[in-house]
Amino acid sequence: MGTINLAWWNLQNFFDTDDDPISKDFDFTAAKGWTQEVFEAKKANLAEVLNALKPELLAVGEIEKDTLLEELIAQMGNPHLKVVTDESGTSDFRGIDVSIAYDERKLSVVSRVSHLIHLRYRTRDVFEVVFEINETGEKLVVLGSHWPSRIQGKYRSEPLRIAVAEHIAYLVESHVKVLPEEYENLRALNDLNPVVDRWEAKVMVVGDFNDEPSDRSVVDHLRASNDLDRVIGKTNDIDGFKKETGDYRAQDVFLFNATWKFLPQQKVGTYFLDRAGRGQKLANRYQVIDQLVVSRGLVTGEGLTLDLDSVDIFRDALVATKSGRPRSFSKKTRKGTSDHLPLTAVLRY
Hints:
- With about 350 residues, the protein is of the alpha+beta class.
- The protein has a single domain, classed as Endonuclease/exonuclease/phosphatase (Deoxyribonuclease I, Chain A).
- It has eight helices and 15 strands.
- The chain has a seven-stranded mixed β-sheet.
- The radius of gyration is 20 Å and the shape is globular.
């Protein structure tokens, strides 16, 4: 049996010191105090945490470009982590992106594609990477995403996150269902195995959702919950062909949210927010907005599997206060790392 250590982390504005003329990165220039020395301090702090996490599959958000992740990995001194380059870059106004790296000893890249979500404005893309487990040949689909923020208010901005959730749900469905024409051909041959195998595809959605697991963008639109039986129970099995292909096409794809378990815990979250706009103080300050959601193929226990007990929020003193709040990076003191805490998990194969 082998394992793969997974980590997701929103790095909070990991920009270099150059002014990108087409992005709103004005606060991250030497004129604004974001000097090379400050940048190097943040990079060193982030690398120290990542070395503690020992990731073999790493996804990060709020990073300006892939070359910065390469710099961060070089700072870590880990020669086995390789960045999955995304030539399309980012369309985000602020110039931030999602980036993914992997341990070449355990994983190989099969394909990669950047999906642009068509809102009224260009937003952060969804980065899809298909990996192969070197030892077993199993495929793993990773969808890294950073959903639109709540800066305009949770409910006013909610339709934007719903749009992203719907698009990701569509991408997941494309991996767990065969095409209608193929379904009809297989039905004519009475060969159900390819349909079942596809239904068990191993798909992972990870990122900063800017909503919590119980919010409707996640539950109603991504179709992810903490109801494991809804995902892998007999009522969600494929045990025969539908008479009508349209019924197969309409079949719901339910996902399991492995980070839901943090909701009822006291003073536990990946993000801490004391107040919203206009001075409104929040009752729920510890928020679980960084999430890990998986398809049924990763929780059935067959082959490559997400160890549900291993899913955790990293709250070491390197990144968190004694009360469990993230330690943001300070340009003045050059201490801290990010306003988000990392998510960690273990995949077993």
